[in-house]
Amino acid sequence: xxxxxxxxxxxxxxxxxxxxxxxxxxxxxxxxxxxxxxxxxxxxxxxxxxxxxxxxxxxxxxxxxxxxxxxxxxxxxxxxxxxxxxxxxxxxxxxxxxxxxxxxxxxxxxxxxxxxxxxxxxxxxxxxxxxxxxxxxxxxxxxxxxxxxxxxxxxxxxxxxxxxxxxxxxxxxxxxxxxxxxxxxxxxxxxxxxxxxxxxxxxxxxxxxxxxxxxxxxxxxxxxxxxxxxxxxxxxxxxxx
Amino acid sequence: xxxxxxxxxxxxxxxxxxxxxxxxxxxxxxxxxxxxxxxxxxxxxxxxxxxxxxxxxxxxxxxxxxxxxxxxxxxxxxxxxxxxxxxxxxxxxxxxxxxxxxxxxxxxxxxxxxxxxxxxxxxxxxxxxxxxxxxxxxxxxxxxxxxxxxxxxxxxxxxxxxxxxxxxxxxxxxxxxxxxxxxxxxxxxxxxxxxxxxxxxxxxxxxxxxxxxxxxxxxxxxxxxxxxxxxxxxxxxxxxxxxxxxxxxxxxxxxxxxxxxxxxxxxxxxxxxxxxxxxxxxxxxxxxxxxxxxxxxxxxxxxxxxxxxxxxxxxxxxxxxxxxxxxxxxxxxxxxxxxxxxxxxxxxxxxxxxxxxxxxxxxxxxxxxxxxxxxxxxxxxxxxxxxxxxxxxxxxxxxxxxxxxxxxxxxxxxxxxxxxxxxxxxxxxxxxxxxxxxxxxx
Lengths: 241, 442
Known about the structure:
The complex is a heterodimer.
Chain A: H1 2-8, E1 13-24, E2 27-39, E3 44-48, H2 55-62, E4 70-75, E5 78-79, H3 85-95, E6 96-99, H4 111-122, H5 126-139, H6 155-167, E7 173-177, H7 185-201, E8 205-210, H8 213-216, E9 221-226, E10 229-235, H9 237-240
Parallel strand pairs in A: 3-8, 3-9, 6-7, 7-8
Antiparallel strand pairs in A: 1-2, 1-4, 4-5, 9-10
Helix pairs in contact in A: 4-5, 4-6, 5-6, 6-7
Chain B: H1 3-16, H2 18-56, E1 61-65, E2 83-84, H3 85-92, E3 97-112, E4 115-124, H4 126-129, E5 136-139, E6 149-152, E7 179-183, E8 204-213, E9 223-227, H5 228-241, E10 255-256, E11 258-263, H6 266-279, E12 283-285, H7 287-340, H8 345-380, H9 383-391, H10 405-432, H11 435-440
Parallel strand pairs in B: 4-9, 6-8
Antiparallel strand pairs in B: 1-11, 1-12, 2-10, 3-4, 3-7, 3-11, 5-8, 6-9, 7-8
Helix pairs in contact in B: 1-8, 2-7, 2-8, 2-10, 7-8, 7-10, 8-10
C-alpha cells in the first residue's frame, strides 16, 4: 500500500542531476558525479557506500549544509540549493532532524536540555518544551536520566538523547549520518529499532547514511553509492513486511 | 531563541570555562579599577584645588577695575572701560549677576579707645552689599543709614595695639558698638610724633563699629567696610589736606576706579568675566582665574592618569578577545551542531557578544566595587601619606579620591562596551563558521 501512494504522490525530496566538485588546491575532486533521485514521504532510505563514496556529501547537500556545484534539490517545493545560509538554517530548524555518529550533545547542558535544544532555537516557551522533551525522553527509554550530563552517560544512552533531540520537534525529515558508527552490535540493534519505530510511528521520512550493510536491513530502499555515482537502488519492501 | 534562554546559555558557557572567564574578568577588573581610581584622584585634586582657591577669596566675586578713558580725548558716549552709575547698571543687568557695587578704598588708621591699627577701608554700597552673602560673626551687617559705620573683616580686630606700649596680643579688640576714630594720620594716638615740618595734618572722623564678619583667612578678613558715600567724603577731605585736586568728575559724570560684581553661580563667573573684559573693556580679577588655571592642571593630570587606566582596559579588551577566540576554537564543534540543528545565525552571534559583554559588565561591576574600596582606603588610611605626595602638585584637603556618580556609571558602561566590542570579531567569526567544517573538526 505504501508503494502505491509513494508511486502516485509527488516526491518529498527531489534531487536532479546534482554534481559536486571539491577543489583541493590545483586538483579537482568529484564527490558526486550526476545524481538524480526522488524520496517519498514516509520512506526510510539508506545510502550505502564506502568512505569517500560521496554518500555524506549527498546528505549534506540535501540538508543544505553544502551547495551543489550543479543541479537542483527540492524539498517539497522549496529549492534548497538556492536558499542563503540564514534561510536554510531556518528551514532546517523547522523541518529537519539530525542524528550524528558522534552524538554531538552539548556538554554543558543536561540530557533534558539537550533534547529541548531545537525547541529552544525555535523560541518555544519553557513549559511547553519541557513537556515535549520529557515525553521524548520517555519514548527513547531514558526516563529518569533527564538531569544527567552527557559525560555521565554511555554511548548508547547519549545516542538515545541524540535521537530524542532529532525527533522532539517532529520534523518532516530525519537525517542520520552513521548513527551507530560508535556503538557495539547490541546497542546498534536497539538504537536502530528505536529510530525506525519512532519514524514509522510519526510517518516521518528517514535518510540513513552508512557503510554498514547490516544497517541497510532497516531501510525500505537502499541506494548504493560508489565513486560519486548511484550504482544500485534496491527496494526492500518485502523483507520489512 | 528568546533572550532568557540565550542569557542562560551564555552564563553556562562562561561558568563552564571558569578559570578562563575569571582571568578575562580580572583583566577588566584591573582595567576598570585603574581608570576609576586614576580619575577619582583627578577629581580629588580638582576638589582640593577648589577648597584651596576658596581660601584665596570669594569665588563668587569679580573685582572690576576701570580701564582709562577719563582723559580729555574721551568721548562722552564711549563708556568702554569706564565705571560710572550707568555702566554699573549695565553690569547689574548681565545675566547671572546678582549684585554690583562701586568700590573706593583708602588705607587709614582706625582707633578704638587707646588702641589703633592700620587697615584698608573699603567703601561699598551697603544696600547691595547684603546680597554678597557675607556672614556676620558679631554685631550686624552694614546698613545704608549707618553714618560712618564700620564693618570689620574677621582678622582686623586682632590687630589693635597701643602705640605707646609694647603689648602685642592676639586677643581681638571689642569693636561692635564702640566709638571709633578714623583718620589718615599714621601717627594717630602716638605721644611722640615725628618732627617732620611738612607733615600733613589729616582730619579725624568719628565712627562706630557695627559688626565683624565671620569668614576667617580669606581676603575679606583683612579689610574694613564702610558706606561708599561716607568713605568718599573722608577721601575727599584727605585729598584736601594733601592739597590734591578733588574734582573727580570727568566727562562721563562721576566715575569709580573699582566695582565688585557678585555672581551666585560659580559656573557663570567665567562667562561674565568674558563679557566684562571683552565687551565692556574692564580689567577683572577673580579667584576663579586661579581656579581655571588649577583646573587645567588638574584636567591634565586627570587625562594622564585616565590614559594610564585606559591602557589597562585596552589590555583587558585584548584579554577578552583572546578568551572569546579561544572559546570559538574550543566550541567549534558545538557551534556546528547548533547550526545544523537549527540555531539562527544571529543567535550564535548574539551568544558570543553577550558572553563577551558579560565579562565586560561583570569585570566592570567588580572593578567599580573595588574602586570604591580603594578610594575609601585612600581617603582614610592613606590620606596622610597620599596627602603629602599630592600637596606637591598643588592639592591639599580632606579627600584624595572622589568618585562622582557619572564616572561610576560611565566606567561600567564603558567596560561593558569594551567587552562587546572585543567580542564582536570573534562573534562574527563564530557566526560565519561553516557548520560542516565544524562538525568535521573531531
